[in-house]
Amino acid sequence: MTVLPELPQPEAGDVVRSTRSSFIGPFSELRVEVFGVPEMQRDIMTDGEGNFSFPLAGRIAAAGKTTDVIAEEIRGRLAGRYVRDPQVSVNFKSSSNPLAFQSMSVTVDGQVNRAGSYPVVGRVTLMRAVALAGGTNEFAKLEDVVVFRNVGSKQYVGIYNLEGIRRGNYPDPEIFPNDIVIVGDSPQRRAFKDILQTIPALLSPMILLVREL
Questions:
Q1: Taking Cα atoms as reference points, which of 178, 65, 171 lies closest to residue 114?
Q2: What mean pLDDT is reported for the chain?
């Protein structure tokens, strides 16, 4: 492993290249249809928090979820009560720019209140990404937060201390789409145990080139 001064920023191709599904985010334009029920076929735009309302199903919290997940959620709310066996489809609306409707996401896992994938809208820092996941839970270890990032053909790891960032020991780093953030104790963190004992991340982050992809 090679130690670096800072975590490299992804290239444009790294940000848009993803094998994961596209996630709904704020101001996503969607087409929602319930087969055979014309009054339940409509175009929808999510609000600034990625939510929207749908007839008889109520308010839907869609941010960070795929269209398939939201279709199943609407189906579950309608089934048996309003429509006997609803067939629901949710799709991103067509766009001249195929990336315009995609909300690139960051995955936050570990000792947070709501682990999952969250849309990256505007500039998102590490502290903000943790906040999107509901913040750390009461048992979280803040000493070492691991950020995985792929840049070109290389995989990097940044190890940060949230308390060090709060104290102003070093800047709150920017998080980019497709990053993976793991908070607190984890197998990924324990893999760097020996290095962390030698150079703790309180006063400065530790950036490592892990491997060639």
A1: 65
A2: 81
